[in-house]
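Much of the work behind modern protein science is quiet bookkeeping, done one molecule at a time. Below is the pair of lines this work produces for a single protein:

***
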Amino acid sequence: MADAGLPAGWEVRHSNSKNLPYFFNAASKESRWEPPEGTDLDKLKAYMAQNTRKPEGQIRAAHLLVKHKDSRRPSSWKEQNITRSKEEAILILSGHQGRIKSGEISLGDLAQSESDCSSARKNGDLGFFGRGEMQKEFEEVAFGLEPGQVSGVVDTPSGVHLIQR
């Protein structure tokens, strides 16, 4: 079996009810949605890309969302009442984009602490989705990206995003 980057005793399994991968430790019988502590996330990402079947007509993407006061719901897990302007949100996201492009940090690692979406706990991973499941502006950009490519700033009613396919 290929190296999934998981600590000893852990393996990747697939939930039939949620149609998502999860992590299982056979010795302790512990199961969890998030990778266990000590996981090499780069190896896990490569493993998942090679060993996860893509549903027909769907893509998998991750994103980093920065909300602003005019967002559809101007609050998040990080901030109860978001008061920044859209322009400030774009400036913040542009700074994140520079760090990602320079190779200083990955979108997933940055999303964990900086994204206003609850997907932050999963490195911004939104899982697989098809056309018509996401906001139009988001979907158009996501489906136009090549695997591994990161978008520029994408404006939607939820806020501004960087998207990685």
Notes: The chain has a mean pLDDT of 91.
